[in-house]
Amino acid sequence: MPRPFLRVHLSFCLYFHYIARIMSNATPKSPQPSATQPFLIEKLTAPFDTDITLPGSKSIALRQLAIAALCSGSTQLTGVPECDDSAAMIDCLEALGANVTNVAGVVTVTGPIDLSDTAVHLDARMSGASTRLLLGLAALRQGDTTIDGHASLRARTNKPLLDLLSQQGCTIESDNGCLPVKISGPINPATHLSIDGSLSSQYVTALLIAAPGYRKTGNQIIEIHGEAVSRPYIDITINEMRKRGVKVKWLDDHHLEVMSAPYQAGSVAVEGDATAATYFAALATLHNSRVTITNLGQDSRQGDYAFFNIMEQLGATVERGDNTAISGPAMLAELPKIDMQAMPDAALTLIAMAPLLAAPILITGLSSLHHKECDRLECPARELTAMGIELTTTEDSIHIYPGDGTLLAPHILSTYHDHRMAMAFSLLGSVSGTLQVDDKAVVNKTYPDYWKDFAALRTETGQ
After folding, report:
1. Predicted confidence band of residue 36 (pLDDT cuts 50, 70, 90)
2. Catalytic residue positions?
């Protein structure tokens, strides 16, 4: 496509995508002006060599908290990240009748949750993963369970999961599959359950986590129809369930079997968040620097750990062991095309990094990004365009042309209440020195210390 027509093409793509979202009742809204002052992302001008200890994996922590709430007895969890999503999940589990304490960084959950006919109201705040897990747990209860959350969470559909729960005996009230949702159970599931996996792996995870409570005897078969997205996140779920005494196996690419067994209480350590690691892996790669991630190693089952492989393709050197160290190259290699379907959360990191690469890059496999905290394909495209970056989009891809990162147009980034927009775009800010974010505190959702750890890269070099 001739380069003069790139912006026109993007405008038409965004227009038709907006129409599609309106028709699906999931139109992404521009964020309301933030009450906070814009925050300038400071430029990194010298190489750094530093250690980073990440917050614990949100994905693992939320799964383990939900499992612990289904156990009879107490479970001790270390490494649970101190962030909004974890706090929302803990508050919801307490409202469901579990007892939760946090002493010296050890979160103790004593279950099981109350399955009686009492009415319960849960506020999931902005946590999509918590919402899906809680929907699965709510189906076990006799009483009404109402789940609501932030306006950005209300825009995200839960329809495939709610339709299945309705078909299996639950009474559901919702706003066309969106929050607020009221569920009345208990579920009376068939041996074989089938759910659409093309929008989010979280629907499958919700069923897997709750399955030992759904069927007291006999194994549960879960069929994933449609193209399953984010399979690594399903594998995380399977691995965390195995730690607690419940085995799950893939029968083929579309069928899972959950063995009949109760969860066992005990102690579990939550490793560092691999998605959070992508920001520092990218910063090290871009700035010819070195970062050692102290609490994330080669045995991780988190799909986003494979982001280090992508950095190697760009020329970085990665040392894998009990921890992971990455050193950036003197000159970036070209990466013409890559499929990020298996790493949707890490895709935004690569999108924000793309304008700083050596050559154009086509990033594909992005259809699930439309259904995240914000539309993580359309929204970053809009922000990059405002900064002067040339790009084109389709429904599941983005083609980004590099530019001089030091000459990007000064811009206040709209984060759309999405923590990953702020953290991913810090990569561009680290080169331009002219990028501000509209809400510094948005990172509190999963990584409250992100800006502190980012600033440590400057402190390390005396900038």
Report:
1. confident
2. 345
